Amino acid sequence: MASPVLADRPAVTPRPGRRRRPGVGRSDHLIGWLLITPALIYFVVFLLYPAVAALYYSFTDWNLRAPANWVGLANYTELLFNDVQFPHFWKSVQVTLQYTLIAVPLTLISALAQALLLNAIRRGSNLFRLLLFLPVVTAEAAVGAIWRWLYDPQYGLINAILGLFGIPKQNWLNTPELVIPALAFIAAWQCGISMIIYLAGLKGIPESIREAAIIDGAGPVQRFWKVIVPMLRPTTFYLIVTGTIAALQVFGLVYVIFSGGGGRSVTGGPEQSGLAYVLHIYLYAFRYDAMGAACAMSFLLLVLIMIVTALQFKFLKQEAS
Amino acid sequence: MTAKQVRKAPIYVALVLLALVSVVPFIWMLATSFKHSSDIYTKVPNLLPVDKQTGEWAATLENYEHVLGIGGLGTAFLNSVWVCAILVPAKLLIDALAAYAFARIPFPGRDKLFVLFLTGMMVPTITLLVPRVHITQVLGMYDTGWGLILPNVASVLDIFLLRQFFMSLPGELEEAARIDGAGRMQIFWRIVLPLSKPVLAVVTITSFIFHWNDLVWPLVVTNDPELNTLPLALQQLASTESGRAYYIMAGAALSVIPVIIILLIFQRRIMQGIAFTGLKT
């Protein structure tokens, strides 16, 4: 275990050209460990231990009524194959994948459009950037509360605006087929971070390349597909990876949107159509007190996230070569 | 109009439309929060707090009074203030000390430890949640103020960012100070920290916004409504008063306005910070 005792070991070789005074190396070891100690304690207690414990508990039947007993792979097999014990597990997988598949592209397209427009102007660009960024710094709880009201079937602003175009009123958050598009739209509304990152990417495209394309007679559409999109490919991949990882973990927003009936009660939405995977984990961990099963679910998510990341990086490598 | 202005006009039109999509929900929130309950339910939505019948200006603070008092958001607001007031500086200090050691002080095992930290950063929060709550219970901090603060009091991402910045500082200054007999801690306080104001600001602001907005941790680590933080109280308001949009929007405004003020003051810093860190989510 890490401890200041290590300071007694021989000091590291001094870098050339560096004046050393006696004792500096030793006291450095001590100071180094001292400075890291608070962060290290935090890391061990609230990160390393929970990670290892979550893996262990995923192989147990830990709940509030009984201490943890080792059950091997039972949690995992029950989750995947026992739809009596876990009736909504696959539904939550489906909901989350659908949400991810809609929300991530929608967010990226919206972010890229905003970044392209912002990049094309000088005057007022700071103001527009600020306004487009507002939704990002807003608390999930507030976002959920505001959008519940915007989507209100009778008096909400969304139906009123769509009404101007002759679209009939929809009960957005209470119609199973509409729940995921409605949630994905909120995600796209909050695309500000991707927008800023795209903007940085656009600023990184050398002016000379743009000019060369113009000289070669490329119009704006051709420039977009032949210059901007390829040059932004690394940015897009980064945003797809981080966006997918975030979307797979969507929780707070859904929790607020589907809480009701007072206090902390929450549902999965109409016919479980808003039962995000992490919401499902939350319910098992903190409402049904099936912590072992919840840990197993969270490890399946971890594996899925690792697979997504690996696949995308593999794809990225293929693209590059 | 010049040719250039004509060419740019559609761009501005598109940006105005997008900015409206972005901002109108907030205007609608504010308008609702200042409306009398009788003026909420209208056929054609009103983006201003006006009387339903006469169309005259009719703003009220009743909704704010209600949610701050009976609604419990007053207590929750103060809770969020003190949690952030303790947590954000404590976290900054712990992260900066560790980052400085990782960046500048050679000690055995340092780089391996740093890699271990980075690996830990990859684990999604939800995976850690159940055991983290459990250990908070074991340590007697469940449903207490400490439970809201200590399990968040360091951040590997922030350590990483601060370390990167400290490493980019010119080493000569520190070397010169050492030759003049300054100790490591003196160098840290007198030279490194003052030179690092930009990155310290970014870390402080993003960390404030994150914890001010955080719903999940307070949700799982507290039970007592007296310990509600603002997002948690807002969620419960939305759950309990689901038919009364005027209360809920007043609550949402209380949560949103402080952060918007911070964003207005520090927008440049925040945008720069995100461009290279991608804000924590």
Quick synopsis:
The complex is a heterodimer of chains A (321) and B (281). With 321 residues, chain A is an all-alpha fold.
Structure overview:
- The complex is a heterodimer of chains A (321) and B (281).
- Chain A has 321 residues and is mainly α.
- Helices cover 66% and strands 0% of the residues of chain A.
- In chain A, α3 packs parallel to α7 (176-189).
- Chain B is mainly alpha-helical and 281 residues long.
- At the A-B interface, α1, α3, α4, α5 and α8 of A face α1, α3, α4, α5 and α10 of B.
What overall geometry of chain B do the principal axes of the alpha carbons give?
Answer: globular
CATH fold category name of the largest domain in chain A: MetI-like fold
N to C succession of SSEs of chain A:
HHHHHHHHHHHHHH
- The proportion of strand residues of chain B reads under 5%
What top-tier CATH class of the largest domain in chain B fits best? Mainly Alpha
The radius of gyration of chain B is 24 Å
The structural domain count of chain B equals 2
Topology of chain B as a string of helices (H) and strands (E): HHHHHHHHHHHHH
Regarding quaternary structure, how should these chains be classified? heterodimer
Given helix and strand content, the structural type of chain A is: mainly alpha
CATH class of the largest domain in chain A: Mainly Alpha
For the record, give the distance between the C-alpha atoms at the N and C termini of chain A, rounded to a whole number: 44 Å
Chain-averaged pLDDT of chain A? 88
Structural domain count of chain A: 2
The rounded Rg of chain A comes to 26 Å
